[in-house]
Design brief:
alpha+beta, 6-stranded antiparallel sheet, 18 helices, elongated
Amino acid sequence: MSGSPGRLGSLASEDVACALIGADGVALRWSEAGVRLLGWTAEDVCGHPLRDLFVEEGEGERVTTAGMSGGRLRHRSGSAVDVVLRTVPLDGTDELLVLIAPASESADEQQAVTVLRALRSQDVVRIALYDMDLKVTWSHSVPGVYSEDADAVEALLRRVRDTGHPVVGHPRPFRAAGEAPGQWRMLSLSAFRLEDAQGGPAGVASMFVDVSAHQRARRRLDLLHEASLRIGGSLDVARTAQDLADVLVPALGDLAMVTLAEAVPAGEEPPKAFGGGDLHLRRVAVASATGRYPSGLLQPDTPVPILPDMPLLRRIQQGKTLVFSREEGIAHLPGPRLASLFVPDEGHSMAVTPLFARGLVLGIVTVWRTGQPDPFDEDDAHLLEQIASRAALAVDNARRYTREHRAVVALQQRLLPPARTVTPAAETVGVYQPAGGSGEVRGDWFDAIALPSLRIALVVGDVAGRGLAATAAMSRLRTAVQTLADLELSPDDLLAHVDDLVQRLAREAPPGTRDTVGATCLYAVYDPVARQCTMASAGHPAPVLVWPDGTTETVAVHPGPPLGVGGMPFETTTLDIEPDSVLALYTKGLLRLGGLDLDAGLLRLSRELGARCGAGSALESVGRAVVTEGGGPLPADDLTLLLARVRAVPQENMAAWTFPADPAAVADARSAATRQLADWELDDLSFTTELVVSELVTNALRYAGGPVGLRLIRQNVLVCEVTDPSNTQPRLRRARTTDEGGRGLFLVAQMTSRWGSRYGERGKTIWAEQPIQASADRGRDRP
């Protein structure tokens, strides 16, 4: 015998064949189902032993025995059919009824019964059977479960019934009978159509699996993932705190508040306070699921009031995460005033945790549930603690970055000159703005250096690199430029010396950073007497000149290579400038404001300067407006702007003479100087001026020959200049008592406030300055 004997699940179905046999096993009757099953007609079977239908000899002997058996029968086509047989004796006769069913159908039915029994004995999967009208005909643990949207579920089942396309794993919120109206579970709904024996639709079967725990775990993982992506992307403390609040709402609660120690946004460590008192806390960030933060609660950017010493506060300071109901939270707060500041009107459950990093309590995070019905549980508290732990590290990183950034900015700003200077040559205003966002401070600088003979040097530079290294390099370059400016070198010679310095710095730098050592620089010298400006550029953008009538032009300088390249000369450009014109020197960061390219940024800068640098305009306001007009995000690069409104020395404040190489010229020079001082009503300076003129002209005639030039300039100081054709450097020395000479420059240095020399294309000029006391002005107007 072969096959898989077992119980027939439904012997009355149309697929079960029936045969009536006598005690001898001869077939007396044969059903139509037997014809369909084996192909043999009643004429073929009746009158013959039924055992003749079996494939193997001896299998049919069991047919005459009541009970279950299995076997293989011959089909009319010659094939074998596995069947299950059940022989039933008929009361009052010796005849037997033989029921024959295909073994495959019987096995399927047996398996179906086994699966159904297993499903009915468990509580994980819930089953419901519906008829064609979608009325429940049988269910397992489904009654008492209500959908949040019953119409949507019915529409889904109707679609399965009509189309035959199953639905698998469709999540739907449901509520079990007896649970609170707001407590919903998440069930995974699967549905498929039932078919009758002919394959037609007979109803719908649905299966429900409670995936609430899985959904909660998935939401927690998603929230942790979102927190890791959104928190810590900024190095701004306040922005990081706001990102934390936004992540928590509405994923975890309906209201979130982040309170930080007041020292943290400033980059400092929070006080190590324990217990109550003035904890120097300030609410920094809030978030609301409705978009409206309750007005009665402690508002953003508001300090936390003095708190009494209470167990709740101490537990938070110890790093504990706590969960409270509304009533418990109010009970922990002494008095209704504090309760109104910290407990929202509709809040029913609260979770609070400290921002704890590197042994420091940076602040406190509080989350309330108002619209969400479920109270916070331990899983929620653990999730909040995990998010707050990550956020605390991000806040602490932002705090430390802020501290370092502010230190570097403060250092760089201390290394820069005063923002505004006023000299006889020009009024200058410098604007420096460090890089915003996550950028580091770089090496931009500006300078306005007062030079002898009322001249002024204007400098703007941009050091490569960033951070403290760039700031240190900027300091060294600025010092070098100031020192070389005091030597009164021409702009091209000065840049050549600074280029040598940068090359030396590159050689001293570590091997991996030598390529990053470099700078660009523009150096300009304006002479208010000649009303000329001479400049040279080392790879720096050309300045913008704004004429008094508001027209602008970009000065056509000849840019040399950046400092540190070496091997190339620098060229000078000289232009005449009208008084009250504004010369604007800047770095590339200013041109890139608002995300513009360099050409568009230069057009914007020229337009803004032309519109704002009118007569009488305050340069401080112009500088601030030009820097802020670009809009958009904070610049990714430092930016520097130096504005200089030039002045001119009136012709009546100057006098010049030329004397031949004749010793008698010394007396003529003294007389000319004395007469001019009398005309200027500076007789109190005559004695010193006569001595200075005498010594300088004498030295020029003795050591350089003629002709000798003498020029006096009256402004806030009296400048005496003597020019000769020699390039010999004058030297100040202390003469011995027996020396007949060598005391001239020593006397000049003693009698004046300062003196020096500079070289021109031919010869040199020795100059000396004397202060003009305010009391000596005698009401005269000296621009």
